[in-house]
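Anyone? Bumping this.
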Amino acid sequence: MLKIALLSCAHTHAAAYAGILAARGDVDLVVADPDGFGDVPAERVVGSYQEAWDAFDGGPDAVIVTSANADHKELVLEAARRGVAVLCEKPLATTVADAEEMVAACREAGVVLMTAFPVHFSPAVETLRSAVRDGALGEIVGLTGTNNGKLPEGRDWFTDVSLSGGGCLVDHTVHVAQILDAAFGEPTDVRAVANRILSASRAGEGAETGGFVTLTYPSGVVATIDCSWSMPDDGPTWGGLTLQALGTGGQLTVDAFADHVGGPGQWLPYGADLDALLLEAFLDAVRTGRTQEPSGEAGLRTVRIVAAAQRSVATGEAVALADV
Amino acid sequence: MTTPPGGPLAVGIVGTGGIAGAHGPGWVEAGASLHAHSLDGAEAFAETFGATVHPDLDSLLAAVDVVDVCTPTPVHAEIVHRALDAGCHVICEKPLTRSLEDARAVVEHAERAGRLLFPAHVVRYFPQYAAAKAGIDAGRIGTPAVLRYERTGQFPRMPWFADQEASGGIVMDQMIHDIDQAIWVAGPVASVHAREHVAASQPEVRTAHVVLTHTGGAISHCRGFWGPAGTAFRYAFSLAGDAGRLEYDSAQDSAVTWDAVARGGAETGGSLLPDISGMRSPYAEEILDAAAAIRTGRAPRVSARDGLVAVEVSLAALESLATGRSIPC
């Protein structure tokens, strides 16, 4: 049995992770809910991080950090101090400096650090990565990615910039950015625009709810990510993620959450459980001690893109990634 | 200057390449008597649409009330000025002109002359875009916030299209439609930034991304693609506002779908113009709107000023491509 502590119920993914881990049978799980959300089903829920650290003889084998973004850093650094493997929710951190410190601490401690990008495990996304790798689209010239969703409900910290680090630029840019990172490496510059017209009355002060992030790669390949919370509240599903690649050999569009049975007002997803695949990879990394992708480094690189995007929104000009 | 009141409009097509063939049926439907002048292909056009061929522009201008400019972009301005000087109303294929100076000059000329100058932004007459615009005007999405437009076609075979100096490239030729749409839906543009990438191995294949920030706060992303040989024409949009979202994709939302067996050996080649076989022709709608505006004096769906603004914003995108900077409008 692996001893796992889920640290915080702040993130909406916490309940899904707890449910999957509880059902596995090879995990002894304790959930820390210091904010008292009270809606993550688990056999053992404790009211503080300290109780979670102390819940197992000899401490946990691994922790999963599902706190508000701004709290990731202290929890990951604590895991590094204790020599415990970490899966940290995305975005890895709210600043580049924090992300760098977290990655460095885990590296120096020899601790596994992975970033929770479930879409990395989507079979559709793997099809796109392999098409890029194998040259199936010829020379790729450009891409358009979308990660649109509803503004999260019941978790107001998502648009409290002191806890989240920002609005949709922070929450939704990184998923597509990580797929692009795995396929194309790091961009040279980032240009972004943002606004707050969607859900303006619900979003916290200063949190953008709509945005485009345009990345330019060393080859000149151009990619734009629509990171807006533009799925209406009455939409049939939470949102989705698409990525379209265009090349001299044709076009490929993948829709990571397309697998569903529909009907008027109906949306029954049947696709691969990406959260379960992510946790499987993480538990494998815990057992072997070898980090898998998406790594902490991948998380850091996407945080750098977000920071560049935020600076671009502020300056109105493209920002070189090297300057971030 | 030959048309009696209520009689057929005398219309001169100048330039009888691909787009003239798209305009022809609309003029026939409008009951126009057609004239044509072209450096090449006027006879074939005349045979198809029953036009009188003129050996030079002056002879055509003397015979018509309306000139429909279907030439390559670089000579639009000269022909529009001559047509206005001759007292004609003018339909002009998009982009209105290649330069901002020329666009301002033709628009001001038309205003001085009291003649219609109608930029043929046909996408405003595509029923999908017209339905979206009507829905948005009726409040279906609330305040427009985040708009995405995509346009995909096979790279143009006529060499002047790919000549950036002549045509303005993919931004001014293809994407100007979506720039015009974004402005139609979300209003004037405050600033523009743009990126383009041309395939090193096959320079005809290219993509452009243009992001508009509107003065009202909305943001728009326009994505153009000139694809390899065989690329089917495709257009799509997703328009999100604070009260809803409207979406369309020509590759998915079709009234008619043939399966591969039924299609048999039919050629599935690429195209520069969209397949409009399943819908009321937007080209005919466009021409009939222009003809009605000429006959009645009412404003058509797209004004000369709209054409000027589309040129201005497209040129700002080209400047952004050249400098890497954001360009205020």
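Late reply, but here is one note on the structure posted above: The interface with chain A takes residues 143-146, 148, 150, 152, 191, 193, 195-202, 205-207, 209, 211, 213, 217-219, 221, 223, 225, 227-228, 231, 238, 240-245, 324-326 of chain B (CB under 8 Å).
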